[in-house]
Amino acid sequence: AMDADVKNESLSFVQQLGVEMTIRYGKYLKLLKEHAENGLCFVLMNCEKFLKQQQRTVASSLCCLQERYAGYDWFASSVFLIMSGDGEKTLTFLQRFSRLLVSAFLWLPRLHISMHLPITTVESGIHPVYFCCAHHIEMLLKAELPLVFSAFHMSGFTPSQICLQWITQCFWNYMDWSEICHYIAICIFLGPDYQIYMCISVFRHLQQDILKHTEA
């Protein structure tokens, strides 16, 4: 996007909060230097400008189908930290990455009201990650970890809700930074189905805790 166009963009309140959190986390990890905030804002505004070019106009009362992606772009922020706060490198990577199928699963804003989706899918307001990955996670969980699946069923809570939260946030606040980097790298190199296997492996790791909480 042209710099002049990007300057006309502004970050939402949610994005501003996300930027503060990302910068604080990056400095804690010793990945970012001073004034990294401007670089991250530049990346996010460029992403928004770039993705707008591939969005449909949808007449809907659903908040999630308004022009702007409602949440924060955790994936772009993760790449920004991986690139040690280099905005140009981050944008170059994201532009190339957006051509890959796996970008639809890792980078959720990528398919927000996208022209690449059927209009019926767009109008439903449900992201493909939910009805693709989350559906397969539930199927695999039932086969691989029946006790965990039953525990969720008894609680009236679906595993897919938890997984969508993990995936949307790129596992921030759930896994250590090195594990988050491994998660992103594994899905890029080995394919988006590893997103499903990662969630199942986390449930396997948490199985005893989940069962203990169910009993209590």
The termini sit apart by 54 Å
> How much of the polypeptide forms β-strand, as a percent range?
under 5%
**What form results from the Cα inertia axes?**
globular
Mean pLDDT: 87
Number of strands: 0
Helix proportion range: 55-70%
- Content-based structural category: mainly alpha
Number of domains: 2
Biggest sheet features: none
Uncertain spans: none
Rg computed from alpha carbons, rounded to a whole number of angstroms: 18 Å
Report on this structure.
With 216 residues, this protein is mainly α. The chain folds into two domains: 9-99, no CATH class; 127-215, no CATH class. The chain is 65% helix and 0% strand. It has helices at 3-7, 13-28, 36-52, 74-82, 87-97, 103-106, 119-124, 128-144, 146-155, 159-168, 177-190, 193-205, 207-215. Helix 3 runs parallel beside helix 5 (87-97) and helix 11 (177-190) packs antiparallel against helix 12. The longest helix has 17 residues, at 36-52. The protein is globular. The mean pLDDT is 87.
